[in-house]
């Protein structure tokens, strides 16, 4: 193990061997201190798209918790592009300034980097908050929704979306570019386009949600046309030194969904248009999906994309133990690991993982150093007790 960690460290440009999750990583000019990412997680409590004190504390605390990279929740490019009335947005200057305050806190007080996830809800918009009837229409004040094709998400329940017209495509593309400019001025280090989970851009990619007869439907080349148009426009508006990622659903977990060939062809096209990282999620395209859950269950898709196309990947999905991260990174199955739900229970997931593994060089807030020393001592003592042979006299 020690030999392998030394070899891996050298490959990653350092002589300082360490558990793989603490190796640095570089995307364009962005340098990350480690391989742990706080995955995008909607907070469903913005008003008129405005992040507020909740978001400052939520993101601030997770940035203090040691992960190298932090994602915003899906931040919507227009009011009608929101999933719920509680989603954050980035279509005006007040929202830009509210985000700026949070980004500044993260940069001034922590070494974490901050990625803005931009999206449009498509046919899954105008729905209830995450802790209400998720994916179900609002009880009142629904707004009109759009998608690649006029197919409702929940048959007989959801609103039927309008098929996106060419004029709508121009409007949506311009909204993504406007949000990109605002995100740049808010100070974000990185940008992600949400093309997963059945939202607007994803609805073009999957044959289950895109049944258009025009040049934006049909085979994967047609289905990629609009997502690629948005990607090109956003890449052109986002500085060359800053990385761009795309979140995809690598499979729809449903018959007739995205094929492996379509997946690889799409990722190759994204790479050619200047995408630096693929954030590899799955499913949520159709309500009748049949996912196969388990530990690290989406990592095989991150592995496939990374090693067949030759692009950096972010693995996500039921990665909850530091050893999951170490093994994924050490085996070259992904370059980064995103942790979502465990970060809700424990914002300091990375600090704790470092103490547990006796890794001394993890950054901690100075204000919390007394807690670091005690945690390290206690964990070391617990490990010694666990490793000691059982004394039968004491046991009896
Ligand atoms: C409360 C909550 C909100 C989420 N919101 C988003 C989101 O805004 N954008 C997104 O791409 N994924 C979102 N996700 C999905 C997570 O980023 C992640 O892919 C998923 O939870 C699996 O990771 P986990 O097993 O570590 O929780 C959300 C997940 C949770 C639990």
In short:
With 396 residues, this protein is of the alpha/beta class. The protein has helices at residues 2-11, 53-64, 93-109, 166-186, 200-205, 220-237, 260-272, 299-310, 322-330, 341-345, 349-356, 369-387, 392-395; strands spanning 25-27, 30-32, 36-38, 69-71, 75-76, 113-119, 146-147, 162-163, 190-195, 244-249, 277-281, 312-316, 336-339.
Provide a descriptive summary of the structure in words:
- With 396 residues, this protein is of the alpha/beta class.
- The chain has a single domain (20-346), classed as Aldolase class I (TIM Barrel, Alpha-Beta Barrel).
- It is built from 13 helices and 13 strands.
- It has an eight-stranded parallel beta barrel with strand order 3-4-6-9-10-11-12-13, surrounded by seven helices. A two-stranded antiparallel sheet has the order 1-2.
- A hairpin with a 2-residue loop joins strand 1 and strand 2.
- Helix 6 runs parallel beside helix 7 (260-272) and helix 11 (349-356) crosses helix 12.
- The model has no long low-confidence stretch (mean pLDDT 96).
- The chain binds flavin mononucleotide.
- The site of flavin mononucleotide has 18 residues, from loops.
- Flavin mononucleotide (FMN) is lined by residues 39-42, 73-74, 117, 130, 194, 247, 281, 316-319, 339-341.
């Amino acid at each position: 193990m020690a030999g392998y960690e030394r070899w891996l460290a050298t490959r990653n440009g350092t002589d300082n061997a360490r558990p793989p999750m603490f190796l640095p990583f570089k995307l364009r000019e962005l340098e990350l201190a480690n391989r742990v990412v706080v995955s995008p997680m909607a907070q469903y409590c913005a008003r008129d798209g405005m992040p507020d004190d909740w978001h400052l504390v939520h993101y601030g605390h997770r940035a203090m918790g040691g992960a190298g990279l932090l994602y915003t929740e899906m931040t919507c490019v227009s009011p009608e592009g929101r999933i719920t009335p509680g989603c954050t947005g980035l279509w005006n200057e007040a929202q830009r300034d509210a985000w700026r305050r949070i980004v500044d806190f993260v940069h001034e007080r922590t070494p974490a980097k901050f990625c803005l996830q931009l999206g449009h809800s498509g046919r899954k918009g105008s729905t209830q908050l995450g802790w209400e009837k998720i994916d179900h229409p609002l009880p009142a004040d629904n707004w009109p929704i759009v998608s690649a094709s006029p197919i409702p998400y929940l048959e007989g329940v959801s609103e039927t979306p309008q098929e996106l017209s060419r004029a709508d495509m121009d409007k949506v593309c311009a909204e993504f570019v406007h949000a990109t400019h605002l995100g740049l001025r808010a100070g974000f280090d990185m940008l992600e386009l949400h093309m997963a989970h059945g939202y607007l851009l994803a609805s073009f990619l999957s044959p289950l949600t895109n049944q258009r007869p025009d040049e934006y439907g049909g085979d994967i080349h047609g289905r990629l046309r609009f997502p690629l148009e948005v990607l090109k426009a956003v890449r052109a508006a986002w500085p060359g030194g800053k990385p761009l990622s795309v979140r995809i659903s690598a499979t729809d977990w449903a018959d007739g969904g995205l094929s492996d060939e379509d997946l690889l062809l799409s990722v190759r096209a994204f790479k050619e248009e200047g995408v630096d990282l693929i954030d590899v999620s799955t499913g949520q395209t159709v309500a009748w999906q049949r996912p196969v859950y388990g530990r690290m269950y989406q990592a095989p898709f991150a592995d496939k994309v990374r090693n067949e196309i030759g692009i950096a990947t972010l693995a996500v999905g039921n990665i909850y133990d530091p050893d999951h991260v170490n093994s994924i990174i050490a085996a070259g199955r992904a370059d980064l690991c995103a942790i979502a739900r465990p970060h809700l229970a424990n914002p300091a997931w990375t600090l704790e993982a470092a103490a547990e593994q006796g890794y001394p060089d993890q950054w901690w807030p100075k204000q919390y150093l007394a807690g670091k020393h005690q945690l390290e001592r206690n964990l070391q003592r617990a490990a010694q007790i666990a490793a000691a042979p059982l004394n039968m006299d004491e046991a009896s």
